[in-house]
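Ticket reopened. Same input as before:
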Amino acid sequence: MTMELDVFVGNTTIMDEEVYQLWLDGYTVNDAVRVRMDGGVMEECEASADVLLSDTMDQYRTFQMCERLLHSPSKLGNQLLFQIPPHRQAMLIERYYTFDDGFVREVLGKKLSKGTKKDLDDIGAKTGVTLKSCRRQFDNFKRVFKVVEELKGPLVENIHHHFLLSDKLARDYAAIVFFANNRFETGKRKLQYLTFQDFAFCAGQLISNWTVGAVDNMVEDMDVDLDKEFLQDLKELKVLINDKDLLDQHKSLVCTALRGKTNNLNEMETNFKNLSRGLVNIAAKLTNAKDVRDLFIDLVEKFIEPCRSDRWTSADVRLYLTHYNNSVHLLDTFKHQVVWNRYMDVVKSSINILHVRLDESEGLSCFMEKKKSQRWGSCSSCRSPHSLAPGQTGGGLRDLFWAPTQPGRQQPVGRTHRSGRRRSIRKKDSLIAARGGLPHL
Amino acid sequence: MPGKLKAKIVAGRHLPVMDRASDLTDAFVEVKFGNTTFKTDVCHKSLNPQWNSEWFKFEVDDEDLQDEPLQVTVLDHDTYSANDAIGKVYIDIDPLLCSEAASVISGWFPIYDTIHGIRGEINVLVKVELFNDLNRFRQSSCGVKFFCTASIPRCYRAVLVHGFVEELVVNEDPEYQWIDRIRTPRASNEARQRLISLMSGELQRKIGLKVLEMGGNAVVGYLQCFDLEGESGLVVRAIGTACTLDKLSSGSAPNTNTHMSPLAHGCRSTHNSPVHSACSSQRLSQNFSVSVPTLIFTGMGSGGSVGKEAGPLKTLLRQQTQTALEQREFPFFTLTSFPPGFLVHVGGVVSARSVKLLDRIHNPDEPETRDAWWEEIRQEIKSHGKALGCHAVVGYSESTSICEEVCILSASGTAAILNPRYMREGCLDIGITDHRFEEPSPPSCGFCHIPYDELNMPFPAQLTYCYLCRRQKVPDVLFTTINLPAEAAVTGKGCLIQARLCRLKKKAQGEVNATAISNLLPFMEYELHTQLMNKLKLRSMNALFGLHIQISVGENMLLGLASATGVYLAALPPPGGIQIAGKTPGDLSAEHHILTIQKRINDTIAKNKELYQINPPELTEEVLGSPVPDSRQRSRLFRSHSESSDEVSELDLSHGKKDAFVLEIDDTDAVEDIHSLLTDAPTPTGFYSCNTEIMPGIYNWTSGVQMFTSVRVFRLSNANLTNQGLNKIFTDLCENLLKSFYFKLRSMIPCCLCQLNFTVAVPEEELIQVGGFRTSLVCNETEEQLQFPLELCADPSSANCQPASKASGKNSASVDYGSFADRCSTWLELLRLKAHTIRRGSVKTISSLERSSPLPEGRSRSLRSNRSFGGISVTVVKMTPLSFLPGTRIIKYLGIINMFFIRETTSLREEGGVSGFLHTFIAEVFSMVRAHVAALGGNAVVSYSMKECMLMENPNKNQAQCLINVSGDAVICVRETDQEPTPSTASI
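Engineering reply: fixed in the latest deploy. New output:
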């Protein structure tokens, strides 16, 4: 029976969590009814499709009416329109602000502007998230961004208080806001293997070390903007590579410390100057907004890729970085220990996580195989060889670095095949992302 | 100058943005009472203004205090143009006028606008200082307490029950005044809201005066209704029962908790008693009168003799009571539950209906016509009561159904004999009389005993000796409009029984129309009764409680909906089965068919017996002693529409043999009927439903209560609808509604829906015209569930350990029939009915339900008065149509809540269509009720009911309007401690 009008209102608002999730996922009423039917609710309680439809409509209406309140969750607690028990309110809010990792990965670091919003249908298609759900998530990011932008005090705390989110979710939002504000580049192919959670971890590190808030906790935007003075001070680190004595001294200290602890000592020794130059140059360039954005790419290109090509294990990387960092403290002539620490704390942990993830995402065996064959691009099942292919992105240092081990012989091939390869990679990426983007199925 | 009203505006929050440029609002507040207005300062550029105004003082007569609401208007200041209204709050200050109720109103109120709905909240503080006035000629009645609760309120003791009070007030409807053509919809709606608020204040005051005259101090079972008569005006009428109440100290409160202490679980034997339902004459105004034969339905029987010991006592009792009651014009009581011992015998249902033609009310100050109409009906009820040998009518209620200029007035109640001691002056020692008073029969069956003289029965009924006490006669079936008395012995569980009926009628105007309706009424009533009886038998039950028959009139159809709770009373005889008889013997296929049906019926009866746990001890007739002589007589049921009306109620029942009830299949209609009888979907396991306050047979309630309202509109196609087709649609609609309740509340199993209250309506004719002539059926329903804690469920020691919970609901359905062929064609397809054009017509059905649900798994929520989230707390207010909240004790009544709201929209599509519009509106009404209760300091509303829910829509113009009237009693309740302070034995 098709009803002209059909409403059901309870004094205590009645909500079904399953339907709420369907609504959040952007299902239409009819699709939601279908999903529920497949879920077997009907057999459970001898309901008919009519009953299910009417119930779903009622719930959808209720959620739509609640949505306005969910935009400022603190209102939900003292509004009078709906009588909702506190634990349900918390559930409503938490779920409303929960996002799909696949989706957020796509917009991470992008400007939360109208332009990006227009691309949401593409992102939706790519990640398998419905457009409606994309919009909700995007608007959530934007809303949180807008609110915390002008607040004093710690970022996570602010999000926690204004949006009544759980600690975990508040941290994730802090990462999103931080990335959006500094516009870190995360969409490049070389960074594709990283998940949102990896970046969220790095964001946490950056927030607690490099922002204004790391030194002063009552400034506006303290956790959103990087500490300009600090970035300026980073230039001073250049002495580590420019001063020949210092560089050699540093190298020998590191090598001494590493001796006997790793199998890759030779590579480490050979690469020391390149790696060190890479890291210090990244630091020195951070005064440019553009280079800040490329921070993660630079880390991958100038540190992780060289390590990978030498088959460093994650443990090697960790070990190397630890000693690389600690040895600086033994350099008597180096005066910028504090700045160095502040810089390296973040870089160390970030590189660690980036490297570990790379290991996990490819599987070392696959990598080894490719090494053996020495035919770049031949392994179609993984992305790493392409990212290791020389000459794809500019960067003198990297070329320098590559020169000894891969004497540039493949360069022309790499260049001609690049575009085609890229396309195929894209496709695969989106497939993977799509799989990851459907957590509810 | 007997009163000083003080108001203070504290702050606002969540105000809407009124200035687009700044995204802010410059708000200020106007406080108006009577003709005096005060203003606060403008709070510039804030959505959360803090006014913290001074105390605005109004010095007014207490008469005005009773009539007028305090009107708080929030506006946006505009330097150049007129100030924009944000919204209003009407605060009824009546609760402050009674010393025992609330002392201050303080809290956040939603700011309501009739076009935009709720727009922010405002914090207001209101106080009243009353001076004593000894003027004897005063027109006010401050201090008289009003209760919607139709029983003696929990923390009071009835010293004296004075009797029936009624009043009606008439005015022109602002919506129909000439000025409405030029003013904005907002102004018009506000004028209407204000007028109704004023009228109900005045009505309450006048009733209060009557109560004071009678020497009472309270009105219980206060029932106020609006009749929107359109052109001819607006009538607000109310009835109630005047009482003198004494406040109980909290320690003795449980004494009145009679509902909560069911005495008899045992089932020994059964009795029955007659039903007398009468559909009475309809009169048309303007010297035109049609009289309709009065129908009396009953079980029939023949008697032996009255129990001898009881005889004289009964007479004595009757004399006493009669003297007490004779002084009264109408010995009516709106109560549905009574203190123990109040109800002596119950006769049966009495009802009267009358069809009237509305005409313009010429002189609003002298509403004589309307008074006279009701007077007539009450007289008729009184005489029906007399015919049943009863001197009083309890569970009395009145209602109307209006379609264009035709109006059906209905009244119904239960004829009864009351214990005179509550009505005599100077008999205050109730506690003692309680024990001293010799009941003529044990309380568990006494009320079933026939009140009338069996040699001189008002209708044919079949009498047997009471199955419990064996001393007095009881009828075989008992229908009543009251709640099941707490002391009654019941076997098994109860269940909701509904009879639904649609009857087409020709479209007509004026008197012809009225006559047509008059002629249809008795048949409808008869058929509803037959359906009820059949369904009752099918469930192996023998009594109906809380019977409510609603007949709604529409353009081209009449809708009848009868709801009641069936139970098996241990005192009445077991019901016989149903036997199918064919009229054409010899036809083999027909006989086979009949056999199949018979088998299905028998199976259903057996299944129902199990389902409702009806297993009375087998009583052989020898044990009964004196078998009723002609008990073998077969009963036969003639279908009314195939018989002429003078043959009508020849329904004789036999008991003793199981084939007491014979259904004759004489035509296809009858087959249909039997089908519909059998198609009532069974309640899913874990659910119980009833339309009375408590579910018979379930005694463990949890405090988890959920009240809800549901409204459905169904559009009928203009197809060639027959009575049967309509009946089926109507039945499906009701069944579907119940099914969706069960589905929605599935997480609360075990769950009991109580006070399920269905209302059906066919939207008005004019609306249909505007809307393009459509048919729609609206169901609106409120319900409530109570949940049981797991411990109770798991308790192995009690056989009856199913958790019971309740919910109450109200359900209104309306059907309108429309007729433009093109429009209807779509609907027609949907309904798969043949296209046919019916000019226009409408049916409106309204029903209301109450349900309760027991919840296991410790899901029952605690009744904490505050929930806090995000640092600010909002008081949790429970709402229930019951007169109590299970698991809690009411410690204070704060006053009556009676609110009327109009909501209109000109952007129907944007608000999600009619459903979205109404959904929002109902949610808003709930929130406003909660806010008012919270401001009075309360945490619950009991006896809540949505009296009116009228929806008018015009999707073509993207418009809709809705009117809602709600009422209830604001109370403070506290969780019942595990041990009640005093043992409940005192209540017997």
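The first helix of chain A runs from residue 17 to 24. The longest strand of chain A covers residues 5-10. Please confirm and we'll close it.
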